[in-house]
Amino acid sequence: MRTARLRIAHPVLWAGWAALAAGAVLCVIGWYGVSGERHAERQLPYLASCSIPGAALIVAGAVLLAHGRDALAATRVEELYGLLVAAGPADADGPGRPAGGPVAVSPQTLMVPGGTLWHRADCPLVAGKAEAVPVDGRLVAGGELEPCPVCEPADGSG
């Protein structure tokens, strides 16, 4: 799939650059022709045959370049998605926990001294931290500690 898209994207990019270059050349020829004529009726052929088509080619080239870059970006996204799918499920979910399940389920609650949140003991934000201590119920009752938004503990009794 990648090579098929790249085969489409590269010619589109080349066509875009060619259209831009041809449009710029036509605009320069039209400007040169118009600048050499004094009367408006003699300037119109240069505008009609060079400047207007040149401007149209510049716009077409810009559209082709944008489309070609989008095709390259889409190819890269598909390649990354293929690598992600090939890698399989993340190891963080583990075999014992279903995907999308709760982050922490421990009934014990902990806090970090000086912190503003209280957590379940197996919350990833405090798990393995030596400074985490059991929650003081007075701090929770006084409103000084709020429940962790990650593990969502139910109460601070621990």
List the helices and strands and how they pair.
Layout: H1 2-35, H2 40-87, E1 109-111, E2 117-120, E3 133-134, H3 137-141, E4 146-147
Parallel strand pairs: 2-4
Antiparallel strand pairs: 1-2, 1-3
* End-to-end distance: 55 Å
Quickly give the structural class. alpha+beta
Low-confidence segments: none
Helix content: 55-70%
Strand residue content: 5-15%
Count of DSSP-assigned helices: 3
Oligomer: single chain
Total strands: 4
Spatially, the strands of the biggest sheet line up as: 3-1-2-4
The shape, in one word, is: elongated
Strand count, sense and barrel status of the largest sheet are: 4 strands, mixed
Radius of gyration: 33 Å
Explain what this protein looks like in three dimensions.
The chain has 3 helices and 4 strands; from the N terminus they run ααβββαβ. Helix content is 55%, strand content 7%. It is α+β, with helices and mostly antiparallel strands. It is elongated, with a radius of gyration of 33 Å. β1 (109-111) and β2 (117-120) form a beta hairpin. The two termini are 55 Å apart. α1 runs antiparallel to α2 (40-87). The chain has a 4-stranded mixed sheet with strand order 3-1-2-4, with no helix packed on it. It has helices at 2-35, 40-87, 137-141; strands at 109-111, 117-120, 133-134, 146-147.
Key words describing this protein structure:
158 residues; alpha+beta; 4-stranded mixed sheet; 3 helices; elongated
In short:
The chain has 158 residues and is of the alpha+beta class.
